[in-house]
Amino acid sequence: MKKRTIEAIESVVYPLPAMILVAAVIYVPFVLSGYYSFTKWNGIAQTPEFIGLGNFKMIFSPGGDFVKSLVFTAKYTVLFMILTNAAALVLAMALVKKFALADTLRGMFFIPYIMSMTIVGFIWRFIFSSGFDTFFTLTGWRLFNWSWLGVPRLAFFSVVLVGVWQSLGFYIVLYIAGLEAMPQEVLEAAIVDGAAGFVKFRRVILPLLLPSVATCMFMSLTNSLKVFDIILALTRGGPGGATYSVTLNIYRDAFQNNRYGLGAAESLLFFIVVLVLTQIVLRVFRSDNLD
Questions:
Q1: Which residues of the chain have pLDDT under 50?
Q2: Second CATH level (architecture) for the domain 61-290
């Protein structure tokens, strides 16, 4: 009984510091932000003014920026998920083959992922301005003379391009791991049965790769929904607010415009959106659906 009592006490005492830290960093701020979402507060006043659903009415009022940023984030997420997973899968299938520069190319594709996203944004901002001007002078191609960061539609595709380029190496590694974990006897049997090319990919490789696809789809969803620092460094939400993501819009309202109550309300709504989307993706790609 004494040993069981000591084990019971240890099972409570040992995790307690971590539980307190997690509660202080995550759960307490979450509850407070839920309270502040019903208040008008500038972050300085000692007592926030309770306004009920006023912030939520302001969010969905005509001409509100939150809905525009939500549409931008949705378009960015869809395009990012499609391009990233398609390009990563194609490159992974090429890099999984045995040739002299395979390992070198894997490392080169992974380098942008370990770089700071802010630094990546500044690098590409320089490329889109000075770098493309030099390419236009050398080649004369009008493609390099376009205002990639000055036109709203081009700025959107510029942000997507940089986001895909920066994170591509991570998803390549995940797909390579899935491809290398495939049972070779199944692939050899498929070749013996006459499966080759696209038929082999669609009927054999892709079904075996579905767990990796599910992981990459979920990771690309969560990473694209919280896009922030690349946009902050690359376009700062411009031109004319065309590239404001939800996270950047929340940051602007809360920390630049000192409307903490409005920012808390926006973050609470965005939390619900992310929760619903992630649950849908997890349900679609759950294990019994992949069998």
A1: none
A2: Orthogonal Bundle (1.10)
